[in-house]
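Re: the 191-residue chain
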Amino acid sequence: MAEPETRAPRADATRNRDQLLAVATRMFAAADAEPSMRAIAREAGVGIATLYRHFPTRESLVDAVYRDQVVRLTTGARDLLGQVSPAAAMRRWMDLFGDWIATKNGMLDTLLAMIESGEIAHARTRTELLTAITTILDAGSAAGDLRSDVTADDIAASLVGIFTVAPRPEREAKAARLLNLLMDGLRPAAP
C-alpha cells in the first residue's frame, strides 16, 4: 500500500495559522480572563471557521501558543548567544521569559486543566527551560561574564519570584528594575 502524499500547506493557510498564533499570544498576554475564540478570530482578521480549521478546540490553540513560546525560549537562548555577550543574552532571555509568563494570563484556566490531565508535560517544559538557562550560564562562565556558582534552578526560581511580584505588562518598569538587580548579582565579583 502506497503512503499517502503529504502536501505542504498553502501559503495563505500558513499565513492564517501564523497570524492566529501571533494574535492569540498577544491577546492571552493582555487579558485578565480567557478571550473568546471568536474575539481571537476577529482580531486576526479571519473567520471563526478558519480559526477552527487550524485549532479545532480551545485546548489545541492554547497548546500551540504554549509550545510556540517554549520553542522561542529554547531557541532564543542559542540565538541570543550568537548575537551578544552571554550576560546580555541572559538579560534579554529574561525578557523573553517574562513574555512567556505574561502569555499565560489569558489562558491560565485551560492551561492548568491541560497540565492536570497530562495533555501538557510540565516536567518536560521545565527541563527544556532549565537547559536553555544552563546554555547561557555555561557560556557566561566560560567567558567570565557570569558567575560559575549559579545554577539554572537559581535563575528559574528568581524569575518566577520577580514576575510574581511584578507581573508584566502592568509592572514593566518594576520587573525591569528587579531583573537588572538580578543581573548585577550574576556578574562575577571584581578581583
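The chain has a mean pLDDT of 88.
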